[in-house]
């Protein structure tokens, strides 16, 4: 796919690429040069405060995330739990 650089130095990413990677307007991208190529990598999601607490109904330990945090994927939950003893 081809795209152009505007007079302001902006590059438009084709919609199919944005959709495939889940890139939305306002998202941050890391820009690097590797082997003479420009490499754009989506930045990691914002880190939200997480903690382990006790569920008041079951009495079991549960992972809690601050209000406003997006839904987590199973992989993200696994990564967070790996940090706990």
Explain what the structure shows:
The longest helix has 9 residues, at 74-82. The protein has two helices and four strands, in the order αββββα. With 85 residues, the chain is of the alpha+beta class. β3 and β4 form a beta hairpin. The strands form two sheets. The chain has a two-stranded antiparallel ribbon. Strands 3-4 form a two-stranded antiparallel sheet. The chain has helices at 15-21, 74-82; strands at residues 29-34, 37-42, 50-54, 61-65. It has two domains: 1-44, Pemi-like Protein 1, Chain: D, CATH 2.10.260.10; 50-82, no CATH class. The termini are far apart. 19% of the residues lie in helices and 26% in strands. The mean pLDDT is 84.
Overview in brief:
The chain has 85 residues and is of the alpha+beta class. It has helices spanning 15-21, 74-82, and strands spanning 29-34, 37-42, 50-54, 61-65.
Global geometry? elongated
Strand sequence of the main sheet, in spatial order? 1-2
List segments where confidence is low: pLDDT < 50 over at least 5 consecutive residues. Answer: none
Strand pairing plus helix content: what structural class?
alpha+beta
What's the CATH class of the largest domain, please? Mainly Beta
Radius of gyration over alpha carbons?
Answer: 19 Å
Mean pLDDT: 84
Q: What portion of the residues fall into strands of 2 or more residues?
A: 25-35%
Give the second-level CATH assignment, the architecture of the largest domain: Ribbon
Query: Can you write the helix and strand succession as a string?
Result: HEEEEH
Query: How far from one another are the termini?
Result: 46 Å
Helix content: 10-25%
What about the largest sheet? 2 strands, antiparallel
Record field, number of beta strands:
4
What's the total helix number? 2
CATH topology of the largest domain: Pemi-like Protein 1, Chain: D
Quickly count the domains: 2
